[in-house]
Amino acid sequence: MRELTSTVTVDHSDRLRSIPDTRRDRTIHLRFLRLADGYLAQAWGSAFPHDGGGHQGRVLLGASTLEAGIDDLRARWRAALTDEGAGPTGRPFVDEWDLAGRDVDEAVRSLARAGHDLFALLFRHGDAGLDELRDRLVAAMRAGEHVVTVESDDLRVPWGLLYVPLDDHAPVWDDGHRWDPRGFWGYRHLIEHTSSRATGADPTVPPGGAGLGAAPSGPDHLGRREVGDPLPHRAAGCPVEAQVDPPRAFAREYAARLAEALSAPGATLGDVVRDLARAFLDEHRNPLGLIFSLRRGIDAHVSSATTDR
């Protein structure tokens, strides 16, 4: 039998190559489903015992109460960092972004308390099922770092700003509570928010330009703008958004670092945002890195003409 031979003269694939699946397993899944008189909260994943078996309970608070609590958290961040942070030498969080060597304990302690209050509002006003879910969730997140996905179509919580002490021996409202950065969810864990309609979302971030900016948003989510830009435009492609408007000096520094970090080969959005939050707090004593939430998934990365086809 004669063997046929072939020669490729035109290759329309343009040397396409397969992209390895870099999506990491989510160790904690949270879901909030709106009910007539509250929410049904569900939790499952490998972080929980018994092979990740699920837990669920009812949040016995209406949407307006929870939204008011979210607005209160943002207001307390603004008060601690911008409105009431003035001292004899000015407003440190507004006037500069590098606060290494400065005493910021009282300000960050107030942020920890605000984050813990919102956590309590979400998880301490419900039935016995919610109590068990909360205890399991706290135990899991205290045990180590996790990859967390939260699904809700209408409850948009700044999850990274929630705060839970690493043990029960130091209540946050004790005088002189020594805050621990690992108590902030956005410092220790990778967290994304999704919805029931988010399947098949584009996992890439546009390269360069406004796609590497940040979109500050107030409690009403209006007036978004690219960081460092006073005009409310070019926000649609931004991969992150801020829960409170960052001071201009910080916003410029953050935007520059975000763009540089995302341009590194293999960089993913979730890791970059968490690493920036850690760097600003650890190295510069500035908690403002925590205010940024993802507008894409944890595994989103900068698109490349040669790799993302």
- Return the structural class: alpha/beta
CA-CA gap between termini: 40 Å
H/E element string? EEHEHHHHEHEEEEHHEE
Please indicate the percent range of residues in DSSP E strands (runs of 2 or more): 5-15%
If helices are DSSP runs of H or I spanning 4 or more residues, what is the number of helices?
8
Question: Helix fraction?
Answer: 25-40%
Shape: globular
What's the average pLDDT? 81
Sheet with the most strands, sense and barrel status: 5 strands, mixed
- Radius of gyration, rounded? 22 Å
Q: How many strand segments?
A: 10
The stretches of 5 or more residues where confidence is low (pLDDT under 50) are 6-21, 209-234
Order of strands in the sheet with the most strands? 3-2-1-4-5
